Amino acid sequence: MAALQFQLQHTDPQSKARAGEITTDHGTIQTPIFMPVGTVGSVKSLTVEQLKSEVKAEIILGNTYHLYLRPGTEVLEAAGGLHKFNGWDRPILTDSGGYQVFSLAGNRKIKEEGVVFQSHIDGSKHLFTPESVMDIQRSIGADIVMAFDECPPYPSDYTYAKKSMELTHRWLERCIKHFHNTPDKYGYTQNLFPIVQGSTYKDLRTASSQFVANTNLTGCAIGGLSVGEPEEMMYEFTELCCDELPIQKPRYLMGVGTPWNILECIALGVDMFDCVMPTRNGRNAMLFTSKGVINIDNKKWEKDFSPLDDGIDCHISNYYSKAYLRHLIKAKEITGLTLASVHNLAFYLWLVKEARKHVLAGDFVSWKNELVPVLKTRL
């Protein structure tokens, strides 16, 4: 089977926004794209059928840390990989677990070999190394796998950020070596993406972007942003990284973000996004819509029988009313969590597909500048 291919189809004349197509052995992905987060192998409260028919997702995420702990690689291998286990037959990307090791795990100890950490589930001790993380992702069987990195907190002092970045680079070299020395398990090609780090220091970000570019892997990821820094700083460093990364490789900005964050970062040259925000916020009564942000818990929606959002292409968003969803959320009915999550994800996928249309049409910037204030409106 073939390695991942990226075809750059069009670049916006007034920005760095791009439209492209990623081809994997499990199908094609039109970029820019948003990837719903399925941490433990499922997108919370959604079925595969809903992801396909309502959300219109083209690729979803799994997470190495969580899948390693539950159900474990033995179960995943017995199933034939995550695609067979969860029934999703389109592309999957797995995060390496680096962020979770540093944000969830207790009593972690970072050393050259890797990271010793305690499970957030039962406190048991585990060791993640670049090699073991590659092995786990081979067992999961995602189409795109991520290198093991350290994600430094914000803010980090320069000395720590530099030391962390250099460790990430050494780990990356080990990831590449081990990945290339181990075979695909399930008869299709997996692809390794390196991750840019360097905190919020221009020279470190530049050096890391150049290091990642020189690996000549099939794509590149930008990590360590959207971790508490101001939005404008996130945009500044996203642009810096994109300017250094290869034009003919897809660029993945990890963990970003709000709908307006996504549009602004598309304008800076990013192709791929993921974030838990649409599902997490949906479960907490916040809806993103084509007309602005709705707190569906608010009493003002109690007798509003208009659709959740008739401006996007989603049956659930067009069919169910604000009043009904508010009732479900207030009653703590689990169906409400599903409807809110489906709607928010469908909105995010609608947004990136519209962005793609406007990149291809050559009017992306004017469209974005008109839409962003609308999306930020609190209804």
Q: Could you characterize the architecture of this molecule?
A:
By secondary structure, the protein is an alpha/beta fold. It has one domain: TIM Barrel, CATH 3.20.20.105. Helices cover 43% and strands 18% of the residues. It is built from 15 helices and 17 strands. The protein has helices spanning 48-55, 64-69, 73-79, 82-86, 98-103, 130-140, 158-180, 202-213, 231-244, 259-267, 277-283, 315-319, 322-330, 334-361, 364-376, and strands at residues 5-11, 18-24, 27-31, 33-35, 60-63, 92-95, 106-110, 115-118, 125-128, 144-146, 191-193, 195-196, 220-222, 251-253, 272-274, 286-289, 292-295. It has a 5-stranded parallel beta sheet. Strands 5-6-10-11 form a 4-stranded parallel beta sheet. The longest helix is centred in the C-terminal third of the chain and has 28 residues, at 334-361. The protein starts with a strand and ends with a helix.
